[in-house]
Amino acid sequence: MFASRNGRRKKPLFIYALEEFLSIRYVKKISLVVDNIEMTTDILKEFGLADSQKVSVVFGDKTRHRSIKAGLLELQRHYQESDIKVVVVHDAVRPFVPRSLLGELVRSAAEVGAAGPVRPLVSTVVKPGNDSCLDASLQRSAYAASETPQAFQFEILMSAYAKCTEEELDLGTECLQLVLTHCGLRPKLITSSDDLWKVTYNKDIYIVEATIREKSTDVCIITDFESDALNLLEDALKNKVASVKIVLGTSSSKNQDNGKKYNTVILLHRHEIQQDLHLVDFANLIDLDKQGLIIHIIDHASIDGMQSMSVYNLHRNSRKMAHHYEKLHKGVVVIHCVSSNEAQKHNFYEFNENFKESEN
C-alpha cells in the first residue's frame, strides 16, 4: 500500500487488479481473499467499490492453497445463480492484468480444462543440501516460471482441491500441478505478457508506481496554433503515457472524443490566457478524480518576445495560474520556452525526461 507525500492514501496494489476484473463484462463474481476483512472493507469504501454486487470479501487461511480453497468455497455459493463455468486465480500483488492474455487463458481453460501463463527462467535453479552445499541444478531451458492469472473449469479445480492432502494444502503453491495430479489433466501453458509481473521486493514498488503513472496518464494538448513545438511535444509524450490527444481551439468546441476525460491537460499558448474561461472549458474535459497536472507551456514567438517579458511578470503569471487552478485540485506546471529550433528541441526533450517526476 502506498502513501502520497501529502498524507493522502494512494490505491493499494490489489485495487488496480480488482478494478480491471470488475471492468470486464464476462466476470460474474469475484472472491477477494484477505487477512483483514474490516480493513479491506474500509479500503473498498474509500475507493468506491464497497457497493459492487460482484465482490465478496473472504477471510483467508494460513497457506496459499488453503486461502484459494476458501475463495472457491465462497464462489460455490453463487455457482448456480452466476452460471460459473471458468474460474480465474490471481495474485493481487500483480496489479496489471493484460486483457488479451486473460481472454486467451479463459478460452483455453474452457476448451482443455486449465491454462496458465509462463515465461522463460532468467536464472538457473539449484537445489542446496542440508549442509548448504549444492546437491543439484536444473537445466534452465527445460523449465519455465509459472505466473498468474490462471484459469480453470470451475468443477475441475473444485475436484482437485477436494482430493488434496493436508500436506499439499500446507506446502503446495501451484494450482496447475493440482489439476495434473488429481484430475489427470495437463493444463495449457501460454506465453506470458511483459506487463504481468509481481511486486515482491521494496524496489519493485518504484517500478510499479512508474508503470501506474504511465498507464493512468491521459494527456490532452490544447493549442490555438500548429507549430513545430506541438509536434515535438506530441512525439516526446506519445510513448510515455497511456494516450495523447491534440485539440486545436477551445476544448469545449473541439473535444468530441465520446466524453473521454483527461487527468493531465497541457495548454500550449503564446499569450497570457483568461483563466476563468479555461476553467469553464475544463469542466467537460478534465478528470478530477484522477491525479494529474495542468501544464502551461508558453511558447514565445521569438527570443525578442521572451526578453520583453520581465522575470517579475513571468513569476506573477505562474503564481496566478497555480492559485486559480487550486479549484480543480490539480498541480500546475508552467514552462516558458523560446521558439528558436535548437532552444525548442532542448526544452521539449527536457520536458519529456522530467514529465513523470513533475507528476509527483
Q: How would you describe this protein?
A:
The model is unreliable at 1-8 and 252-256 (pLDDT under 50). Helix 6 (154-162) crosses helix 8 and helix 10 runs parallel beside helix 15 (341-359). The chain starts with 12 loop residues before the first helix and ends with a helix. The protein contains 15 helices and 14 strands. It has 2 domains: 13-119 and 147-208, Spore Coat Polysaccharide Biosynthesis Protein SpsA, Chain A; 217-358, Rossmann fold (3-Layer(aba) Sandwich). The protein is α/β, with parallel strands linked by helices and 360 residues long. The strands form 4 sheets. Strands 3, 4, 7, 8 and 9 form a 5-stranded mixed β-sheet that branches. The chain has a 5-stranded parallel β-sheet with strand order 11-10-12-13-14, with helices on both faces. The chain has a two-stranded parallel sheet with strand order 1-2. It has helices spanning 13-22, 37-46, 64-76, 79-82, 99-112, 154-162, 166-171, 175-183, 202-216, 228-237, 251-254, 275-282, 303-308, 311-324, 341-359, and strands at 30-34, 55-59, 86-89, 114-120, 126-128, 134-137, 144-146, 150-153, 188-191, 218-223, 243-248, 264-269, 293-300, 331-338. Helix 2 links the parallel strand 1 (30-34) and strand 2. One of its GO terms (molecular function) is D-ribitol-5-phosphate cytidylyltransferase activity. Belongs to the IspD/TarI cytidylyltransferase family. IspD subfamily.
